[in-house]
Amino acid sequence: GMRKGRLHVVVLPYPAKGHSIPLLHFAKQLHSMGVFVTFVNTFNHLSKEHFRSIYGANEDDNPMQVVPLGVTPPEGEGHTSLPYVNHVNTLVPETKILMTTLFARHEDAPPSCIVSDMFLGWTQEVANTFNIPKYVLFASPASGLAFMLHTSELVKQGKLPIDRSKEEDLVYDIPGVPPTRLADFPSPIQDPEDDSYLFYLRNCEQLLEAAGVLINTYYELEPTYIEALRKAYNLISFLPVGPLLPKAYFEPSSDVVPVDSDIRDPCLKWLDTQPDSSVLYVSFGSVAVLSIEQIQEIAQGLEASGQRFLLVLRPPSNPENVPLLPEGFEERTRGRGFVQVGWAPQLWVLSHRAVGGFLTHCGWNSTLESICRGVPMLAWPIQAEQAMNARFLVDVVKAGVELCRVTDKLVTKERISETVKFFMTEGVSTARKNVRKLQKLALNAVALGASVQKNLEDFTLEVRFGKQLPNGL
Ligand code: UDP
Description:
Layout: E1 8-12, H1 17-32, E2 36-42, H2 48-55, E3 65-69, H3 82-89, H4 92-105, E4 113-117, H5 123-129, E5 134-138, H6 142-156, E6 171-172, E7 180-181, H7 195-207, E8 212-215, H8 223-232, E9 237-240, H9 266-271, E10 279-283, H10 292-305, E11 308-313, H11 329-332, E12 337-341, H12 346-351, E13 355-360, H13 364-372, E14 377-379, H14 386-396, E15 400-402, H15 413-446, H16 451-465
Parallel strand pairs: 1-2, 1-4, 2-3, 4-5, 5-8, 8-9, 10-11, 10-13, 11-12, 13-14, 14-15
Antiparallel strand pairs: 6-7
The structure holds uridine-5'-diphosphate (UDP).
The site of uridine-5'-diphosphate (UDP) has 19 residues, from helix 1, helix 12 and helix 13.
């Protein structure tokens, strides 16, 4: 039925950066539209520094409500590890208590709906308990969503679990998904023995129970995939609301990189010394950990390429304390290379005038961020749905060049050096032209009165007045 008073949306992210960051941007956007928002900081996983590196030093005067939920398991690390996932899955009772508190605390604006992450399927049960709708915020592209919704069909057809004796290079045509080989299927379903297999399939089923899916993409980027979704599942609303980034990033000329020296990161200071569009930014996101052997190949490949680079590394587990970089590497590449171990302020890096290309694992946030800042990509998919994203980037929209495939075990320094050199000297210009086109479409999509705003408004109307079901239903 119709809900009176102010809308109150409870946003519940999965506690991994690639998920909590876009959900935070979504929450901020709703908040700025005058919706009352409670952002649940699962495991207090986003720190003050993260909020700051995402939104700059000046948080607004009208802050959004942020509440903690649950405690990080002691094993802490490994956001995709089984103990972590299982622990996240035990949060149902705590989430119900939190919801009860929110209902009691906000009598004038009780929670009207839950918007939760794609991998928190159990929030459906919580929403059912409180008789409010649940929407999913999908942090991957529409094509990844089309794949997830199609998995039960693949199971029925006997194509899942994957039959290893079948031709590896067979290309599957799934509605709403770019032509995909078995090896490009998302990593959780590659191995039925893996615990993530059932976790993934369960979440795929639970997606079908949601009232709607808000997708971190924009219509103009994936029109045929979005239409395919709408045609195939007409009880679910599919609303593209991306790219989910702070507003400032949609103004190509605005200088979003802070000049404050106390928040100016070492890698930004180094970028200041480099010529325009000359540096290849290399990063594999917040989850992937490369082997020390692979890191060594990357370092040597970058050195041999002769190109300028900023290499950001997540430290691998290294009990024997093996040096991460080849001996003498830093001296030999001084002035044209910089290595940062740990976290880099990626949106600022991609916005820096010196960055000319992005060697990326094709995580969807990284992909969208690169598009919005007009930076062409060199694709090195590692896991999750990144291989499908790479196919889209390289084969469909041609905003990037392929460095390797997800099936390549160790990528050699020769391959890295050759591809990087080719990319930065030749390949980059076509890719840049194409990425700029997509950037322009993104700017149009988020402009005042355009598709993203309309979809966000449709979402609030649906929550307020209930879903308008298709004719005859
Ligand atoms: N990120 C960052 N600094 C880092 C690594 C990652 O700011 O050093 C941010 C990046 O900008 C993006 C998110 O973390 O918003 C990573 O999400 P993505 O989907 O690209 O990959 P994932 O980490 O989930 O594999």
